[in-house]
Amino acid sequence: MSSSSAMECAVGIVLCLIVCTSKADESSDMPLLESINYQVNHRIAYADDASNWNVEDYWATPEESYARGAGDCEDIAIAKYFALRDAGLAPATLRLAYVELQIGGAGGLTWRHIVVAYLRPDGGPGSERVLDNVIDEVRLLSRRPDLHVLISFDMDGVWLGLERGAPARPARDIRRWSELLARLDGMLPGARLPRRRRRPSAGSPAAALEHHESYLIGLLALRA
To answer: What distance in Å separates the CA atoms of residue 86 and residue 121, rounded to the nearest whole number?
Structure first.
């Protein structure tokens, strides 16, 4: 056997071992989770939709967010979600999670926020990992007492919290998520900019409802 053939064989064995180990050991996903979380956090700077898109709420595709180099929490989470899927993680292990973020401890501010949740197939409640734009470390949900998960969703459905099993609602019930998936599938023109419109006054009930419209509809529908 030539030295080049031996090298190719050795490389093939190593790659096979890596793949087999990855399938057998869920912890092998951690380097990928940490890498994607860090890279996206440092590639897409936080900017709210009002300053970035001149509208109250817009869900950008990963390409739009990368092109601008800016996005809000759902844009950053969406970019991570699709990066992880493209990297080969099982779709069933990934969800976008709409959470309440407690800032400043008990009695502090509560902020509506969105993150990526990684669900280990053999894990129970609290074993989920959280990819968040506020920190680069990918922590267990049980180590994030500042987060309370309201709903989670992927390309197929919507769940209360991070429940396992069949989804409670189809993904299309979250309107802006459905619209984004349609754009990604080419059903609507890609990279279509949102239409400019008059913004409600900051802090008004109308502004709060408009910003969280799709989340609130999904959450209230699930609890009805």
So the answer is: 19
Indicate whether 22 belongs to any domain. no
The answer to which of 2-6, 27-31, 83-87, 121-125 has the lowest mean pLDDT is 2-6
Encode pLDDT of 132-157 as tens digits.
999 999 999 999 999 999 999 999 99
CA–CA distance, 94 with 86 (Å, rounded to integer): 12
- For 156-166, the pLDDT digits (tens) are 999 999 999 99
- Number of helical H runs and strand E runs in the chain: 8, 9
Question: What CA–CA distance (Å, rounded) separates 224 from 205?
Answer: 22
Is 3 contained in some domain?
Answer: no
CATH of the domain at 195: 3.10.620.30
> DSSP character for 190?
T
Residue 98: HSE in the Cβ half-sphere, 13 Å Cα cutoff: 19
